[in-house]
Amino acid sequence: MTTPTDAATIEETATSLECRENWPLRGSTSGWRAELELRFARRGDRTIVVSRRQDGPLLIQRPFYPEGEGVCHVYLLHPPAGIVGGDDLKMTFKVEEEAHALVTTPGATRWYFSRGIDAQMQQRIQIADGAIFEWLPQESLLFDGAHAKLATRIELEGSARFCGWEILGLGRPALGECFRNGVIDFRFELFRDGRPALLERQRSGGDGLPGLQGNAACATFLTTNADLTALNLSREVFSNAEDVLCASTLIGDVLVARGLSGRCEPLTKVFSKLWSTLRPLTIGKPAVVPRIWRT
Predict the structure, then answer these.
(1) 3-state secondary structure of 200
(2) How do residues 228-249 score in pLDDT, each as one tens digit?
(3) What are the E-state strand segments in 14-146?
(4) What are the sequence ranges of the domains in the chain?
């Protein structure tokens, strides 16, 4: 007898296999082309994925509800396990009024040597009035020679709330590999009711990476609905952190924090602590760590 959980797993596997048949071969000059669009909505006391459109190797697991029905946790999967030159990944997340979704990844995203051809990943996040979205991917690791374009655009309406981060590791310090021959074009944009609240861009490469002070990892953290209390809490978290350089500021109700380190692990640790500390204040819920982070 097939249980509901088994049925969901079978359906996901079938969808994955059907999608895989249409993927271009790895090594083709065009690279992977993949799109994923998810729409979250509130149905009673439950946030659910009401529509999913996918093309190519971007998938999600069955949603989880570790903190009750109101918050939908989704794990984003990229089966090829890495990004190379010519790859083009696009994701759109739409969160309807009063819905609350959290999206993360099961592991780091690796950007490999690309022979001078750009690879790109774009996220567009649209959050309706009264809705909440948390974007907490694990780190992006850029191997030497990667040409990466990484763009995240968040569009808020009314009282919508957002919390999220991007953590970048450059080269492989443990192997003595520096990021000398690669290029990164990084954008992080936040809009509220069509007006820009934060526009951040960094395009650089190799030893010319500005502002890193010789560090191989950097991170940006944003949360809306913040105030001076949140700012002071962030600085308290940073004062107890080890092996990182961190700072935070308040722009309107947006708290912006940045960090540098020689490795990704210390940044991930301190930013996870920052999220756990600020979530009750800015999101209104205690932190419930995604299960996948414990594996």
Answers:
(1) strand
(2) 999 999 999 999 999 999 999 9
(3) 33-43, 46-55, 59-60, 72-77, 82-83, 88-95, 100-104, 109-111, 119-127, 132-136, 140-142
(4) 4-213
